[in-house]
Design goal:
The structure is a single chain. This protein is α/β, with parallel strands linked by helices. It folds into two domains: 120 residues, Rossmann fold; 95 residues, Orthogonal Bundle (Arc Repressor Mutant, subunit A), CATH 1.10.10.10. The chain contains eight helices and twelve strands. The strands form three sheets. A five-stranded parallel β-sheet has the order 2-1-3-4-5, sandwiched between helices. A hairpin with a 4-residue loop joins strand 7 and strand 8. Helix 2 packs parallel to helix 3 and helix 6 crosses helix 7. It starts with a strand and ends in a 6-residue tail after the last strand.
Length: 231
């Protein structure tokens, strides 16, 4: 499943892209109107996440114009991003053919839920989520994890989100702030809460929490998932 993310705020666009990639989507990005239309024509995405307020270009191509152009040629699902309180933008976008909208600021979990809901409505099932890595089988949908040949273990929602973002980025050390953003979203948390969550997750997946096989800690930076399952 491929998503086109269009937003001139590169930090937000990168966050959205990161969120979707961790859910298994292919992601292409554009930061203005002309490149957005070109990417849509070249890449044939399954869904478009489109900011209404794009920078002025020649010819002018704001989010509404792009939405209209796409809808004239295709039934590709479109989700608009708009600033909270701009009701006229929401009404205009829906009249032009957008399938849904999300008010900024939003949490990564809200975005994924909205995308999956739109894809279900148009008959495109969300991407499979089961993830298999050396020594571990993780099912985010069911929130279960199986280590080697042991019985599946249930995870809480927060534990599942933590394992999700770490395992998708296996072999990388993710900064504490990045992990917190993707686990708690706009609700926020702190490093102590993250540390406690890591400890609880280790208690469920690590045969020896004192010598972690899967989750490694880099003091002062963050956490990572060992790509080879720690041997």
């Amino acid at each position: 499943m491929k998503a086109l993310v269009v937003d001139d705020d590169r930090v937000l666009a990168d966050l959205v892209a990161f969120t979707l990639r961790r859910e298994g989507y292919q992601v292409v990005q554009a930061y203005d109107g002309p490149s957005a239309l070109q990417r849509w024509q070249d890449e044939h995405p399954d869904i478009v996440v489109l900011d209404v307020n794009l920078p002025k270009t020649v010819p002018p191509l704001d989010g509404f114009t792009i939405c209209q152009r796409i809808r004239e040629q295709s039934d590709t699902p479109i989700i608009l991003l708009t600033v909270r309180g701009e009701e006229d933008d929401i009404v205009k976008g829906l009249k032009l053919g957008a399938d849904d909208y999300i008010l900024k600021p939003f949490s990564p979990r809200q975005l994924v839920a909205r995308i999956e809901a739109v894809l279900r409505r148009v008959g495109k099932p969300p991407v499979p989520t089961i993830r298999q890595l050396p020594g571990i089988l993780f099912d985010p949908g069911r929130r279960t994890v199986q280590i080697d040949d042991s019985a599946p273990v249930s995870l809480t929602a927060l534990e599942s989100r933590l394992l999700d973002v770490l395992s998708l980025n296996a072999g990388q050390i993710l900064p504490n702030e990045t992990i917190i953003s993707h686990v708690w979203g706009v609700e926020g948390a702190d490093r102590d809460m993250l540390r406690q969550l890591v400890r609880r997750l280790r208690g469920k997946i690590e045969p020896d929490s004192a010598n972690p096989r899967f989750i490694e800690t880099v003091a002062g930076l963050g956490y990572g998932f060992k790509k080879g399952g720690g041997g």
